[in-house]
Write a structure and sequence with these properties.
Blueprint: E1 2-4, E2 7-16, H1 19-26, E3 34-39, H2 42-46, E4 52-55, H3 62-69, E5 76-78, H4 85-88, E6 93-95, E7 106-110, H5 117-127, E8 130-133, H6 142-158, H7 164-175, H8 181-188, H9 190-201, H10 211-218
Parallel strand pairs: 2-3, 2-4, 4-5, 5-6, 7-8
Antiparallel strand pairs: 1-2, 6-7
Helix pairs in contact: 6-8, 6-9
Length: about 220
């Protein structure tokens, strides 16, 4: 690793991802000097000598957290949209890596108290990737908003006010969103939206999942 003027000139990143998130990551076309090593398990991640570790398939369980913690004090970024740093109990950097959101020009991240913004700034500067700091809350900012929009769409569907297709068209034409709420939920993974809503409703009943959404989740197999 070489470092100059606030940037890493050469940096090795080890990333655990599925095909969908890998393709979104690759859309950023990071500059030369960034070596990316793709792995398929946490144990493989730990075998790589890297400057940065990224777990885009993160699940908040004690065994996984313990394995990832062994990579510290190197920076460890985890795709933890639902769970906070307080939940995880490790000084990992949270990133909003929901499908369709990882490829955005601005990454949404949450820093633990032990990680300074200066250190993260140098990482993202090297990647030519902008970032936005978010509070350490479930859903950060964007996922919270999307989950609420999708949930309201399912309330509307359940009340038989309109069809899925009509709601999607209305959202795209009325708000200029790239996708309607049902299309977006399919891309994100409805189980992810449901899990976030369940977490959010513990402190705010406005996020209680719509019955139609719960029914839809029950009929869909969960994916990573």
């Amino acid at each position: 690793m070489r470092f100059l003027c606030g940037k890493f000139l050469v940096m090795t990143i080890a990333i655990l991802a599925d095909d969908t998130l890998k393709q979104e990551w690759l859309q950023h076309q990071f500059p030369e000097g960034i070596e990316t090593i793709w792995v398929d398990s946490v144990s493989s991640l730990r075998m790589i000598d890297a400057d940065l570790y990224v777990d885009l398939l993160f699940r908040n369980d004690a065994e996984r957290n313990e394995q990832l913690a062994r990579l510290l004090p190197k920076p460890v970024i985890v795709n933890a949209v639902e769970h906070t740093i307080a939940d995880i109990r490790q000084p990992f950097i949270r990133i909003n890596g929901w499908p369709t959101l990882l490829k955005r020009e601005i990454a949404e991240i949450v820093l633990p108290s032990s990680v300074t913004e200066d250190s993260v700034k140098s990482i993202f500067a090297s990647l030519n990737w902008k970032y936005q700091l978010a509070p350490d809350v479930p859903g950060m900012i964007t996922a919270r908003v999307l989950a609420m929009i999708i949930n309201e769409a399912y309330f509307t569907l359940g009340a038989e006010v309109s069809s899925r297709e009509e709601i999607d068209i209305a959202m795209k034409l009325g708000t200029n969103y790239p996708m309607g709420p049902f299309e977006w939920s399919e891309q994100i993974g409805l189980h992810r939206v449901f899990a976030l809503l369940q977490q959010l409703q513990t402190t705010d009943v406005r996020y209680a999942p719509a019955p139609a959404l719960e029914t839809a989740v029950d009929t869909k197999p969960a994916t990573l």
